[in-house]
Structures are given as structure tokens and as C-alpha cells.
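User: My collaborator sent over this chain with a note saying "see what the structure looks like." That's all I know about it. Can you take a look?
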Amino acid sequence: MSKPSLPQGTRDFSASVVRKRNYIFQTIRTVFELYGFQPLETPAMENLDTLMGKYGDEGDKLIFKILNNGLDNPSKQEQAKLEFDKILSGKNTKGLTERALRYDLTIPFARYVAMNHGQLTMPFKRYQIQPVWRADRPQKGRYREFYQCDADVVGSYSLLNEVELANIYASAFKQLGVDVTIKINSRKILAALAECCGGSDKLVDITVAIDKLDKIGLEKVKEELSERGLTSLQINTIETYLQIEGDNYSKIEQLKKIIGTNETGIKGIAELEYLLAYHKDSFVIKHLQADFTLARGLNYYTGVIFEVKANNAQMGSIGGGGRYDDLTGTFDVPNIPGVGISFGVDRIYDVMEELQLFPAEVQTGTQVLFFNLGEAESKAAFALMQSLRDKGVACELYHENSKFDKQFKYADKKQIPYAVILGSKELLENTVMIKNLITGTQVSLSNSELIGFQF
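Assistant: Without extra context I'll predict from the sequence alone. Here is the result:
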């Protein structure tokens, strides 16, 4: 029999890891609710038609497809063999697969809005914290199963939503203690660049290439643009665009010289200027950075886009999002604008571990271990333990009467900070000995004093 193992790109989470992850979830969830967002959950799988074509050619390749049930039926097997050949050639077929694991939370949300828009109060603000799956190559910070935390607003074109989402990013990461840079751009700016370099049909070619800049470098990006049919003059314009530097305002002035006469470009620049001006006097402004190389590879973005990087950490983006003014149009429900952001919880966890940012109390599970020193003693300890539990103190009674050393080792391994010792002497006197296992100090208390003790 082979040794048990996990699928590549997936992980088990121990108690200490789960507590740290829950700390991240709860911090982000609290910020979401402060801004009026409501929780939503959608199924782990969606109809394949719901997902395909929404993420670009690169993203569509990473969708985990689910085989239909009933393929062991003899009447279906011959047809399944024919359909499988289509799958191997890169095509989709309902004969073999009609469903897939969700790739992100945005498209399922758009599907939900399309199905329920008549009953929703607009603008509708939701947050969603659930796992997603991508058939990606596993590496540091990149998993095949991972959680996303999304906040989206639909039913409003107002840029105030982008202002608030930037504030949510800054506030959440401030509470988590992670110093971040929130990069901003607009797809309108990228669309204007495409229009200045051969036409709007070049937008996907340009954004896909630019999105790889950090990974492959400028020269490789230029090579890819050439392979995609752009001329030397057009590539030179894009190179000038990618080399814009300085503070936010000087960057925008340089940008205006390249696309400032293009109508789409003017709108995109105005969006960024609005966002920066709104935060001019808030703590958020120090985190905002205009970055015109930011492309976000997903085709559904239409306006402002975000990407969050952790400063002083070896990690890629830990958050991202943007405006998608016609996402529900793909489900035959047009003219419902939307904008949203996502937190990459798994990457945030890795960053906080790397920078040692988790508070010590996050690790604490059981606060008090009652020693088991005999049948009568353990019954008395059990009653006291229940009284502490009623007051919200997490307690355990050691499962059997064992030597002190064994029970102390158990407390140490579980990082339990307090031990309560109730032996024959204490049983007669209605007292307990409480020992702080971190400092080594101990004190004798009456049973009533124990119930009021501040752990």
C-alpha cells in the first residue's frame, strides 16, 4: 500500500495555522462589515459555461473541470470515448464535463447578481470568504486550492466605491500590521495606449504582455509584443510608457504626454486623479502608488484596477481587483456596473509568518489544564472546569491519572499557559493550586477565587 499523500498544491492546516488564518479572516471580515458589506456564499462548483471565456485564454486553461457522473454507464461509454478526444485537443464538451470548480469569487458573484438582481437593493455590497481552485503550477505563494476574501459593489458607477475599497485595503492591512503598497491604474489608460498603438483590437495583446513585465523583464515583453504583430514604432511608444517614473503626480504628467489627447485616456487619467485627490489628506495616500505597468490579466476589468504588494517581504501580490462595468452582461443582464477587490489570504499568511506579525495570543487555544490526580480529585476538578467554561475560559482536564511530568509535558506541547492542580490536600480544603506555566509562579486560591481569576 502506498503512503498517504496530498494532491499537489493543497495543504493540511494544523491547529496553530488555523488559528492564525482565522485571525486574518476575522480581521478582514470586521473591516468589510464596518463598511456595510453583507456576507454571501456560493457553491464550490459552477456550470462550465458560467466560467469559460471570463478569464482570458491563460485563465481558462487553469479551470479545474469536473467529469460528469454516470460515465460508467455502458450506454454512455462509447460516446465518452469520442468526447474525451475533444477534451485532449483543448475543447470542451458537455458529454464529459458540464461543471467546474470555481476559479475565483467574482464570476460566481456576477452569476448570483444576474439571477437575483430584481430582489437586490442597489447598490448591493457583498463580501465572500471561500476557497477557489486553479490548475496552476504550485510554487511559493501559489497554490491549487486557496482562499479568497472578496468585497464587491454592484449597481453603482460612482468612483466613491473605488475610494472606499482603497480605504478597506489600507485599513485591513494596518490592523494586520502589514505595510503595503496599493498600486492603482485604469484599464482605460491601457485601452488608450492600445488605441495609440494600432487600435483597440491590440488591447489584449498589450495587456497580456505588460502583465508579465515583473516576471520576464522589459526586453522579453518587447519580444512578445513583436511576436503579437506590433511595429517597432508602437513598441517604442509602449517602452516609453513602461519607463514612466517619479511620484504619483509627476507620473500622471508624463502619461498625459503619451495618451493625454486620447478621449479614453483622458477619462482614465481623471479616474486616478479623483482617487488620489480624495485620499490626499488621509493615511491611505502614503500607500497609493500609480503604476501604469499594472495590467491585471483578467479581461473583464474596464476601469480602475488595484494590486497590493507587501513591503519588505518576498512575495508577489497579496490582493487585487478593479472595476468591471458590464460583468453581468455576459449573463444577459446588461448595464449593472460593479467594482471589487480581493485579499489573497494564503499569501497574506505567508507574509505575516515571514515578518513574524501574528500576535502571541493568536496561538492560544486551551488556557487552563486541570491536572488529573485521582478519581475524586478529577470529579471536583471537572465541576470547577465547567464553571470556568461557563465564563468563557477554555479548559481541559487531563484524560487520565498520570505522573506530573507527563501532564506538564502535555501542557507545554499544547502551549497551555496555566495549570490548575487539585490534589487530596486541596480537595479537603476546597482550594486549588494555579501555576503560570510561562513565568513559573504559582498561587493557592479558594474554589470561589479561581472562578473569578483573570487568566
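A starting point for your reply to your collaborator: The mean pLDDT is 88.
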